[in-house]
Amino acid sequence: PVGTGPFQFVDYQTDAVIRYKAFPDYYAGKVAIDDLIFAITTDPAVRAQKLKAGECDIASYPAPADLADLQADPNLSVMEQEGLNIGYLSYNTTIAPMDNVNVRKALSMAINKKAIIDAVYQGAGQDAKNLIPPTMWSYDDAIPADKYDPETAKKMLADAGVTNITLDLWAMPVSRPYNPNAQRVAELIQADWAAVGVTANIVTDEWTTYRERGKAKDRSGAFQIGWTGDNGDPDNFFATLFSCSAIGVSNYSSWCNPDFEKAIQDAKKVSDQAERTKLYTKAQEIFKAEEPALTLAHSKVFMPMNKKVLGYTMDPLGIHRFDNVDVAE
User: What is the pTM (predicted TM-score) of this model?
Assistant: First the structure.
């Protein structure tokens, strides 16, 4: 590939390693690191072990359960910041029974979000009552938090004529800050839904295939997915994830609501932030009323590294930059 960045691509071994070398003609001058190697290690516990053993210098996306041990290691430092992210559960709103808003609300009400956040995020996550994180402008704090009420959920399902059903519950095969352990989240939701008469069939797949299958308009069930913002603008969440044009791309709920669509598209046409905030507030109210997805959690992002690493800074958009990084001898 042709580019003007600080590193040049060397090679890629599928699911194993990506190698780069410093670009000698980089416009800002050759960087300090001669070789940049990404060892692809999908298991966060193994990444942590490699870091502690000195087999790598930085290990991204640590499991919350490993944080205390990493923070206690005298050879390591652990950076942290609030994540510009969201982990959520998308309902396919075009297929029964999830085409019924009351069924979607009942399924959400049956889920004990606090128990999930406590067990899976272990202090690194907070309840998400909106699609956008609370650090982003236009966040509507007046939106009520999701209520955990299995008895009411059971009644709502019965009133909708939905009893003793089986639904697919999709679990991401990878760990991300916005969802550190989707399999465990699925197991907890499975138990919660069982208590209201819903049998959850947990489904997963290889990451690329998982996302492709999730985009299909006829995909059944509820789909775990998440997002880390690209640019800090609310449009990057609302339109990217739930606009009508995102169906088949990144709208895993296949949800197209005219009022929501008008609000987010109108917000693109004005530059006044106060006016845009009013439109995004309306969008958040519609989203909560229609429940195309259960917004699960926003997380902190942690970056553990060897103390020999110098100059690394965390990017709020989740980008890993090494142009200003060096490793002390």
Answer: 0.87
